[in-house]
């Protein structure tokens, strides 16, 4: 099975600094987006730190990465960001991330925060990740029958981030890839401007990921580009 990707990042129309970073290696079969957590110190450094540690990974006899090795890399980045915050007397230096990787015959989605991974297969777009936010947490409580009417919190606030806490929790899910699968990794700058129904429509209308990358980038710009953008489109064949 062969892998091909197209990627773009953009500071947008409002923010001067691009705090989104991307990493893509078809050879290593490892792709990632990272988004410095908004409102915190040195978000650009936070996302770049994750990418730098991913770049340092070298596979041995075969391509791909194990979950344990990936978690080790993110824990190292987490420790470094916590140390940066300590040295600079900052409250938090942190970033979200979403990583797609291959291990043996499986696809692994790994994520922290609200950067997302989608899969387009047989005409259907599926969000494979679940945001680590109070909104998702409250939804879980509501679905389990708990009363959440008196909870007063900004539901968009994130509950996880690389660098946010000494104990980092990374979530994963595994899938068996199929030829023709098309994956999208993106930061919230994309899906806040181009929501899921529109993403699905644009995927269905574009068989070329190169053209789709250009179209999604343009839609992001046309719809306001109020946040930074990081996106990677990946196709299997």
Present the secondary structure layout.
Blueprint: E1 3-10, E2 20-25, E3 30-36, H1 43-55, H2 67-87, E4 95-103, E5 106-112, E6 116-121, E7 124-127, H3 134-143, E8 171-175, E9 182-186, H4 188-191, H5 196-205, H6 209-222, E10 229-236
Antiparallel strand pairs: 1-10, 2-3, 3-4, 4-5, 5-8, 6-7, 6-9, 9-10
Give keywords.
237 residues; alpha+beta; Phosphatase 2c, domain 1; 5-stranded antiparallel sheet; 6 helices; 10 strands; globular
| Average pLDDT metric | 91
SSE arrangement, N to C:
EEEHHEEEEHEEHHHE
DSSP helical segment count = 6
Helix content: 25-40%
Low-confidence stretches: none
General description of the model:
- The protein has six helices and ten strands.
- It is α+β, with helices and mostly antiparallel strands.
- The chain has a single domain (3-130, 161-236), classed as Phosphatase 2c, domain 1, CATH 3.60.40.
- It has a five-stranded antiparallel sheet. Strands 2-3-4-5-8 form a five-stranded antiparallel sheet, with helices on one face.
- Strand 2 (20-25) and strand 3 form a beta hairpin.
- Helix 1 packs antiparallel against helix 2 (67-87).
Q: What is the structure about, briefly put?
A:
This protein is of the alpha+beta class and 237 residues long. The chain contains six helices and ten strands; from the N terminus they run E-E-E-H-H-E-E-E-E-H-E-E-H-H-H-E. Strand 4 (95-103) and strand 5 (106-112) form a beta hairpin.
């Amino acid at each position: 099975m062969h892998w091909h990707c197209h990627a773009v990042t953009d500071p947008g129309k409002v923010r001067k600094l691009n705090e989104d970073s991307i990493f893509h290696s078809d050879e290593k079969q490892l792709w990632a987006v990272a988004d410095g957590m908004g409102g915190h110190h040195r978000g650009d450094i936070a996302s770049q730190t994750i990418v730098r540690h991913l770049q340092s990974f070298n596979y041995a006899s075969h391509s791909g990465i194990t979950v344990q090795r990936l978690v080790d890399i993110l824990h190292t980045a987490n420790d470094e960001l916590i140390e940066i915050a300590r040295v600079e007397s900052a409250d938090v230096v942190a970033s979200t991330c979403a990583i797609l990787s291959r291990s043996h015959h499986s696809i692994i989605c790994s994520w922290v925060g609200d950067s997302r991974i989608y899969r387009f297969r047989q005409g259907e777009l599926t969000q494979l990740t679940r945001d680590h936010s109070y909104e998702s947490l409250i939804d879980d409580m509501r679905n389990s029958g708990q009363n959440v009417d008196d909870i007063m919190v900004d539901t968009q606030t994130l509950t996880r981030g690389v660098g946010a806490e000494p104990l980092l929790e990374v979530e994963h899910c595994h899938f068996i890839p199929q030829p023709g699968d098309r994956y999208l990794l993106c930061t919230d700058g994309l899906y806040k401007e181009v929501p899921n129904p529109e993403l699905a429509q644009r995927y269905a209308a574009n068989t070329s990921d190169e053209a789709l990358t250009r179209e999604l980038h343009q839609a992001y710009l046309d719809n306001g580009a109020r946040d930074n953008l990081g996106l990677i489109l990946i196709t299997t064949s």
